[in-house]
Amino acid sequence: MFWEKKLEHWAASIRDKLVLPLRVELWNGQHLNLSHLHPEVIVRVPHVSALTCLFTPSLSNLGAAYVDGKIDVEGKPGAIISVGNALASGTLKLEGKFSRIIRKIQRSKDKDKAAIQYHYDVSNAFYQLWLDENLVYSCAYFENGDEDLNLAQVKKMDLILQKIHLQPGDTLLDIGCGWGALVIHAAQHYGARCVGITLSENQASFARTQVMKLGLSNLIDIRLQDYRDVQGTFDKITSVGMFEHVGVRNLPDYFAKINSLLSEDGVVMNHGITSTDAESGETPYGNGEFIEKYVFPHGELPHIGLALKAMQEGGLEVLDIENLRSHYAQTCTLWVERFEANADKVKQISGDRRYRIWRVYLAGCAYAFNQDWISLFQVVCVKAGRLPQRMSLPDGHRYGRVPLKKSSAVPQAT
Question: How far apart (Å, rounded) are the C-alpha atoms in residues 20 and 87?
Fold first, then answer.
């Protein structure tokens, strides 16, 4: 049969080029070992029609086939992603749709809100199964390298708040506040007056409930609000895991809006994922296409150079830049471990299809950060030409790399 000859030719070609711990098991009981290695990954093909994803094994094709149940995959998530990438990079040319393309996305407030709600309004219980106890959905900070996820996320919040020199009584705007962890930490341990905004109804409802339970309603205002609609002036502004949703073309306007909300002596921290492609292209071999379709609609990652340019165009001056790529690789690895450990509960809450999407997505993110396909930068800014009067740079330490102080509760502002 035609498919048998094509499959034999494909398998022979793979064996000649690659050494993969991979076995392919067919619907008719036949199986193919792609090398002499013990198979760490087993791909089960229940029907002849599913062979097409193997013959053109982009990460998008393989991921879509797995998500839609056209193939089944057995193995540890890291091994699955590694083998999938080896198949793609070993058989496809890094050009055209498989290269690091730049996707031009038309945006609006309604589209942005729909994209945010698609990603975040799965259910709070879903995220609680694999995030830390405070539901911090962004890169953690492993100061010593041996912290567990809960401690590493607290240290990340302290790192951010200490970099912006948050003081008791300061007003803080957190753009994309998630489930409220950062503003709650800022109010509890730094005595700040906080506004947190999100477009996710689930996140806003959860955060408001937490604020009320902790007795922090006099210090924290959680709003279901687009950043473009925020008014007022703030001493400090944080944007954590948010500018990935803004769109590359909109970044100068985004930072100009932040600048307009910032007090004359204020400080801004932008903590966000960036592309490591010089042209701000998405991750290769169809990985970006998979994420756009199944996980993060309308997400765009700028190169750090483009992000810095946009900050300058928005009237901000950069004081400090730090690359936390290795920290995000570790964060994603821990998320994957927790996700796998709670696989049955995840399926019960979200269904098998969404479980498959997130299983591939989280493991793929860990791989992408490890491979330097994407990165994570914290950038501290002030209004161009101004240095905050209250900010003193510690002697003997690079700005932002002072040893973290332990959080301690301060009297609540009245």
Answer: 8
Q: Find, among 230, 173, 167, the residue nearest to 196 by Cα.
A: 173
Instruction: Answer yes or no: are the C-beta atoms of 320 and 381 closer than 8 Å.
Output: no
* pLDDT score of 4: 83
Helix (H) or strand (E) holding 90: helix 77-91
What global pTM score does this model have?
A: 0.89
Write the pLDDT tens digit of every residue in 30-49. Answer: 999 999 999 999 999 999 99
Chain-centre distance of CA 222, in angstroms? 22
User: What are φ and ψ of residue 308, in 5° steps?
Assistant: -65, -40
Of 296, 295, 294, 299, whose CA–CA distance to 280 is shortest? 299
Domain with CATH 3.30.1050.10 in the chain: 2-92
DSSP bridge partners of 318 = 381
Residues of the chain with CATH 3.40.50.150: 116-383
- The pLDDT, as a whole number, for residue 386 is 82
CATH of domain 2-92: 3.30.1050.10
Catalytic residue positions? 365
Class of domain 116-383: alpha beta
The b-or-e profile of 163-178 (16+ CB within 10 A means b, else e) is: bbbbeeebbbbbbbbb
Percentage of the chain beyond pLDDT 90 is 72
Say if CB 156 and CB 141 are below 8 A apart.
yes
